[in-house]
Each structure stands twice: as C-alpha cells, then as structure tokens.
Design brief:
It holds the Pfam family KH_1. This is K Homology domain-containing protein. By secondary structure, the protein is an alpha+beta fold. The chain contains 13 helices and 14 strands.
C-alpha cells in the first residue's frame, strides 16, 4: 500500500550473503535503525530473491532524511562485509555496487533531459551510474539503477537519487517487496544485456533468444578450476550428478580419472560430441565457446530466459547464444559464447553442460517409457 503523505519509499537490492549484516542478530540492527531514523524497514524472505539474482529486496518507508540514514548504513554494512573467499570469484565487485529499484517516472527524473541529470550525478559523486535497458518491446513498470564506486561515492549518488524520488509524486507506485507473483516482465537487475529479468515470453523464450555469438568446439578445464567452480556452486546449493556438494563441503575427487562421474556427464565427456567447445584467452578475460544442439537450447534458456539470466548471475560470466537459424557450419548446433575472468567462464560452462546433460538424460528416460 502507498505510504502516508510526507513519507517516501526506497527499494534496494542487497546481496543475500550480506543480509545478516543488515538485519543483525535477532533483528537488532534493523530495530535500532528504525528507532534512529523513524523509518519502517522490510525485507523479502530469505530465499525470495529478485528475479535473476541472489539479492533480497529491502523496502524502506519514511522521510527523505530517514531513507538516507537507513540506506547509508546499508551501504556501509554491505561494503564492509567480508566476502567468503570461495564466493569472491562470482560476487566480483558487487559489494561496491548499489542497486535501487524505481518506477519509470522516477527513472526519467534520474536520467534527465538528454541524460543531463545522470551525468551531473556521476560528476558530483564520482561514481558510475547506469540504468537497466529500456525495452523496445513490452514495457516494464520499474527500472533498476546500478551505482558503482567507493563507499563515499555510493552514498553521495544514492542521496541525490533519493532527492529525485522525493520530487516524483508517483515514486511509491510499486511498493511490493516480493516479485514471485508479479505478472508481466520485470526489469533486469543488471544495466547490460536484456531489459528483462524474467516474465517476457514475447522476447525471451527458446524461439526468440536475444543475443548472438561466434564459435564452435572443447577440452574440459583443468581439475583445480573444476574443484574451485564446484565448491563455489555448492555454496548456492547446486547439485551435480545426484550429489549435493553443499552438504559435503568439498567436492570428492576419488575417481581413477580424477573427475567425478557426475562432472564427466555434465561436461559432455560422454555425450558423443553433442557438446563441443573451444577456449581462448586475451590475458585477463577468457572465452569458452560451446556448440549445443538446437533441440536442447531451450534447457539452457529456461522459461522466459530465466535459467540463462540466473547462470550469468551465479557465475559472473557473460553468456551469449546465437540466434535461431545461426548454426555452427554443417550442423544444427547453436553457438554459446561464455566470457569472463576465470573461473567465471568455467563455472558457467559447468552449469550449462550440467543442464544439457540433465535434459538429455530426461529425454532418454522418457524414450524408454514410450
């Protein structure tokens, strides 16, 4: 429901791993913040993440000063929270980012005429400010503003944006904190790529992939990288080959070839060339290119593109899929290009190959029953 007169709302995304630092033991930090600021603070439930992310939604309701006080503390808590080493590769510079969700009307005020306001915000704060892409197709109700910089820059830019929220009479038009039941497209939490996080069957489904690539054919990455990537995935509760590594803590590596059979399956080592790939590097970033059969590409995209968005978020790598009809020469295989700093591409490769292997196995089982 809309806040009372004189009260504003601010919606921000905080990384799930740092939520405890914002909440405090037994909710002590939130209780104290509410007392000091006069604001009301609500969080989405523990596993109720913003679509395509591992971030929880925080809604702050209060005066402009109250919003600033609470949000400045949140920025500080997230910025200073020690990132677990095994998550550092995926999280990257997320602690140095602020993500604010605003209605389209507020987004317009933040951008300003011909981009003048957003340019001023960047100049005054020293931060980089970007908005999720404006869709050409189905419109979204909100946009996500991403601010990148050091702690003081994040605070300065956020406070200017809160002033813009104050200037917009429609700023409280989207007061929900859970997106699980929202119908229609939702804004991507990232400023690059598709405008949509989920829900746009018109633009993001198996027959309308929105990205293009180049490439074909692949040896599996080194074992140390495999172990690192699998441990990282365990922290997100991903399972592989029927084993949930999140419950084991470390990946068992006791097989004669030095690779767990579940990984061998997921890497396509036993799928007779249906998954082929090649790896290249420019020193900092690495590119892995896979060739995936047309009839299995839907498993990688997921419903309304959600799987692809999730895999990019979890791995930290950029994943591009060639358009329908753009196949590897002489095949009906689509090109999938994965780019990023190691081990992000390897993590994404595992997720994709696991997904494809799982889809292949499900079809094989179904064929037996027919």
């Amino acid at each position: 429901s809309a806040p009372p007169p004189g009260q504003l709302i601010l919606k921000v995304l905080i990384p799930g791993y740092a939520a405890g630092a914002v909440i405090g033991k037994g909710g002590q930090i939130i209780v104290q913040l509410q007392k000091e600021s006069g604001a009301i603070i609500k969080l989405s439930k523990a596993k109720d993440f913003y679509p395509g992310t591992q971030d929880r939604v925080v809604l702050i309701q209060g005066t402009a000063d109250g919003l600033m006080k609470v949000h400045n503390t949140i920025i500080e808590k997230v910025y200073e929270f020690p990132v677990p080493k095994d998550l550092a590769a995926i999280i990257g510079d997320r602690p140095k980012q602020v993500k604010i969700i605003v209605p389209n009307t507020t987004a317009g005020l933040v951008i300003g005429k011909a981009g003048a306001t957003i340019k001023t915000i960047m100049e005054e704060s020293g931060s980089k400010v970007q908005l999720s892409q404006k869709p050409d197709g189905v419109n979204v109700q909100e946009r996500v503003i991403t601010i990148k910089g050091e702690k003081h820059q994040l605070v300065t830019a956020s406070n200017i944006i809160i002033d813009k929220i104050k200037d917009d009479p429609q700023s409280a038009s989207c007061p929900h904190i859970s997106y699980s039941g929202i119908a229609g497209p939702i804004a991507n939490a990232n400023p690059t790529g598709s405008p949509y996080a989920a829900g746009s069957a018109t633009l993001m489904d198996a027959s309308h992939p929105s990205v293009a690539a180049i490439g074909s054919a692949t040896p599996a990455p080194e074992l140390s990288t495999i172990n690192h990537a699998m441990t990282t995935l365990a922290n997100y509760g991903y399972t592989l080959g029927g084993v949930n590594y999140g419950t084991l803590g470390v990946m068992p590596n006791v097989h004669p070839q030095g690779v767990h059979p579940g990984i061998a399956t997921s890497m396509g080592m036993i799928s007779a060339g249906s998954l082929a790939g090649t790896k290249s590097s420019d020193g900092l970033k690495e590119t892995i290119e896979l060739a995936i059969p047309e009839n299995l590409i839907g498993a990688v995209l997921g419903k309304a593109g959600r799987t692809l968005v999730e895999y990019q978020d979890v791995s930290g790598a950029k994943i591009q899929i060639s358009k329908k009809g753009d196949y590897v020469a002489g095949t009906r295989n689509r090109r999938v290009t994965i780019t990023g700093k190691p081990p992000s591409p390897q993590t994404a490769q595992f997720l994709i190959t696991q997904r494809v292997a799982s889809a292949q196995n499900a079809r094989a089982q179904q064929a037996k029953l027919m």
